[in-house]
């Protein structure tokens, strides 16, 4: 009788898990396996054309390409922007909307609005704002008599990457604000009350209660920041298309252009596998760092 009951439970469990497992295989596992297979071949993307075995040649050419490492350097700019600009802003906004101030609902909507606009809309809006001829920023600087500061911000190397990074942080501040807000509301209010009774000031409560109890939230943010920086594509493509030349290119743009412009689908797949490995390694390292930090406490 127990055996039949257990078997029935297994069947029910498999029935409920099957749709999710099928979707997981179709949209994640199979594409990754196919990309790994294709990365070892040369293929122009023509239906019916045979795939030529090249072994690790695609990986060697990808890893020895100066264009790829320049794109990785641009990813570093996005990572720096995530931790230097985005994290403190998102955390500060989260503390603001979880406080007892009035109009917090309006503030939540206002801060989250850029995320709801969509990447392309945000990119086009800021491309127009940063236009050196008739953009709002250029007009404002001219109004202040600072004509010398007006330049083509999206055409100058390094500066254009920094501009895109700042636009990206502006856009995703509201999204990460919600992540931090979820961590803040999970902290028992009684701890703050006890600290207040003991004479702890506002900064001391943040330092000794809020930050230590939000380590998991910061871990989630760190993983999302690192992996998001590696795969960034749409906002850069919409604002600069990786130009001028390839100075503002990212690995995602290289992956796209190699496949759909130069028809090097094998090499494009190699780039995707390299990014996948980098993302997994970074995620494991971040998890390890935070685990060691937890063991210390």
Structural notes for this entry:
- The protein has a two-stranded antiparallel ribbon.
- The longest helix is centred in the N-terminal third of the chain and has 37 residues.
- The radius of gyration is 24 Å and the shape is flat.
- The chain has 297 residues and is mainly alpha-helical.
- The protein is 74% helix and 1% strand.
- Helix 1 crosses helix 13, helix 4 packs across helix 7 and helix 7 runs antiparallel to helix 10.
- The chain contains 13 helices and 2 strands; from the N terminus they run αββαααααααααααα.
SSE topology string: HEEHHHHHHHHHHHH
What fraction of the residues are assigned to beta strands by DSSP?
A: under 5%
Average of per-residue pLDDT values:
89
What gyration radius follows from the Cα positions, in whole Å? 24 Å
- End-to-end gap: 48 Å
